[in-house]
């Protein structure tokens, strides 16, 4: 399996969101849910309408999901960004049947989509299904100051070292920190 990178630039992240919102409510919802929940691609693909929508089309506060990889149950907060994207999807393409998959694609299709979206905003490097999950971890640490141990817990990693490697902390970032700390 090819190792992929997170999206490190908040402006590129915003550009992708804006493009997808104009292009496709379903792509937009997939991307926003992916970068805000840190779910694995297979778990996002398994989301059914009844998992996130009430019968009247309003969005639930939490998503309850069983991870395909670990078989562990998770309660995921659907934050304001997720709720807005899911409401937008319902307005444009709903109503949905309760058992209907919101994102009826294969993992390969998701890999191609994310790759294309990243290229369209000028990102170079390796991107794919886990890019959205890694982006959540990277942004949480870099721009929101979340301790690596909390990110580790959210991502279900065994050690902080695994999390640091997973979210792509680069030598340049370490050097920038070394340069800032002048004692």
Describe the structure.
It is a single chain. With 183 residues, the protein is mainly α. The protein has ten helices and two strands, in the order ααααββαααααα. The protein has helices at 10-23, 25-37, 41-45, 49-52, 80-93, 107-120, 131-142, 148-155, 160-167, 171-180; strands at residues 62-66, 73-77. The chain has a two-stranded antiparallel sheet with strand order 1-2.
Write the layout of secondary structure elements.
Elements lengths: L9 H14 L1 H13 L3 H5 L3 H4 L9 E5 L6 E5 L2 H14 L13 H14 L10 H12 L5 H8 L4 H8 L3 H10 L3
Antiparallel strand pairs: 1-2
Provide a compact summary of the structure.
The protein contains ten helices and two strands.
General form? globular
| Number of helices, where a helix is a run of at least 4 consecutive DSSP H or I residues | 10
Number of strands: 2
Main beta-sheet strand count, sense and barrel state: 2 strands, antiparallel
User: Which strand order do you get reading across the main beta sheet?
Assistant: 1-2
Please give the share of residues in helix.
Answer: 55-70%
Beta strand %: 5-15%
| Strand and helix order | HHHHEEHHHHHH
Distance between the terminal alpha carbons, to the nearest Å? 42 Å
Mean pLDDT figure: 94
Structural class per helix/strand content?
Answer: mainly alpha
Low-pLDDT windows of residues: none
């Amino acid at each position: 399996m090819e190792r992929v990178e997170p999206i490190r630039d908040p402006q590129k992240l915003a550009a992708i969101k804006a493009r997808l919102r104009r292009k496709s409510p379903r792509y937009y919802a997939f991307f926003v849910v992916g970068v805000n929940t840190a779910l694995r691609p297979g778990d996002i693909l398994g989301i059914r309408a009844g998992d996130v929508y009430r019968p009247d089309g309003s969005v639930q506060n939490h998503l309850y999901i069983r991870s395909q990889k670990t078989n562990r149950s998770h309660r995921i907060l659907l934050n304001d960004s997720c709720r807005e994207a899911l409401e937008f999807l319902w307005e444009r393409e709903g109503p949905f049947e309760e058992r209907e998959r919101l994102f009826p694609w294969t993992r390969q299709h998701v890999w191609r989509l994310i790759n294309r979206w990243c290229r369209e905003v000028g990102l170079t490097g390796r991107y794919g299904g886990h890019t959205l999950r890694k982006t959540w971890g990277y942004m949480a640490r870099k721009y929101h100051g979340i301790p690596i141990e909390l990110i580790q817990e959210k991502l279900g990693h065994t050690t902080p070292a695994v999390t640091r490697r997973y979210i792509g902390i680069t030598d340049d970032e370490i050097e920038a920190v070394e340069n800032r700390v002048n004692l």
